[in-house]
Structure prediction request, 540 residues.
Amino acid sequence: MFKLLQKLLQRRKAHTDDDWRKNPDISMREAQAKEAKLEKGLEENLRLLQRYAGPSYDFSVRRFKAGGKVPAALVRLDGLTESKTIEEILRTLMVDSRLIKAPDQAGQIAAAAMEQLLTAPAVRESDNLADLFAGLTRGEAALIFDGTPLALMCDAKGFKTRTIIEPDAERALRGPREGFIENLRANTSLIRRRIRIPHLWIESLTVGELTQTEVAFAYIKGLAREKLVREVRERLRRIKIDGVLESGYVEDFIKDTSYSLFPLTFRTERADKVAAGLLEGRVAIFVDGTPHVLLVPAELPMLLQASDDYYEPPPIGSIIRLLRYTALLISLLLPGFYVAVINFHQELLPTALLLRITATREGVPFPVIFEVLLLDGLFEVLREAGVRLPAAIGPAISIVGALILGDAAIRAGLVSPAVVIVIALTAIASFTAPAFSLGISFRILRFAFTVIGAVFGLFGVQFLLLLTVVHLCSLRSFGVPYLTPFAPMIWRDMKDNLLRVWWWGMRDRPKLLGAREPQRTPPGQAPFAGKDPGEEGGKA
Prediction:
């Protein structure tokens, strides 16, 4: 009985091993693809490619004879290449190659095609399957000749991309209207058009075992700290994951601290913001397939600044910035402050106001903490629904829903009018956050401040605020303190934080970023009324 069972197990194992060889898993297929080399025979190479590409309908093979003599094939992925470019390559190899004295040997014909015939912007050689398929997915066409173990990879990109427009989430009243799209080359070109120097270096690498996503990082050589550039390069190289579909995948791997509500990288779709960050000594990280670019290192004051602050005159920009800071504090603290005052500190309110609030709460069966959490949570649901709905009806549904539900809640006696006013002011103030990632952090913390205000009063609100500040002081973004220039205090960098001075007054770059080239603007450029054009400007 034992021997019979052992034979059955061995037979099952042999059958399983045979199936595994015929249908290996993805890890095995990847390992085989990396080791596979091109052969000299054209048919062998095409069978090898077909075995790994399978029955994919967009895998296109066009057989022809180069120079009318040597069998060859053009391999491409339909939809990623331009038809006119493919036609030009085929006409060149099938017709124009007869005008030169091309030898019969395939290797010499390939060399002649690369040096004399092909007019593609970029032509390179490839000798392995993994590199060939990576080129095909980038919009290249592979030319394979019978008798040579090399393939010529020709640039023939022709896939459609989205038009460059202003990003909806980061609109500005004044300034450039160009935003990033899902094409990596188009995004880096937007930066090249703004920083036109050879010292703008852009390095690239591939991340994702299955997606083979191209990731690039840009910096100004000689301005960005070499330690920062090395750190960005090493963190990107350490990423081991099966696929990268958006910059958020990369962000999770490169952050200094994972367990924090606050964003430690600056995410933007605006090309002017990325160019401004590079001029300060930062590093920009681009991910193919997404319009969101990451800037590192990032500080909290940077996340509270908008493009309009720099394109408007400094007095106007400073007032708008102070208004934004005040609104964000209101959105964070107002519900918790209201609950704490109503529950524990009624003496802080004027008597007339306290009596009016007490009168409006008559008949409400729930405590004030329940009212605030109910309305605040309801508004967050409406905001999320407005984001997911189509753009044409999303804002209308959010506004109408808030009005109807708020009025119905008051009429039903579930909440008081004062709570509706508090939540409405909080919601309006929360929309002033320039960075969406920072706005979400404030919205989550607002619930914590509300609960602790209901339990411990204003002392609890103060304690939680102190803990938040301590946590912010402990955060780092690629080694740079998150609260720079407030902690540590850097006085020269205060010219561009709570207030903004004129550009001729911001002479220095941020101390912790642009230390290699600290001066941004030479002195003596302040305008001075009454000076002749030929005279020197007044001292700043």
Observations:
- Confidence is low (pLDDT under 50) at residues 12-20, 536-540.
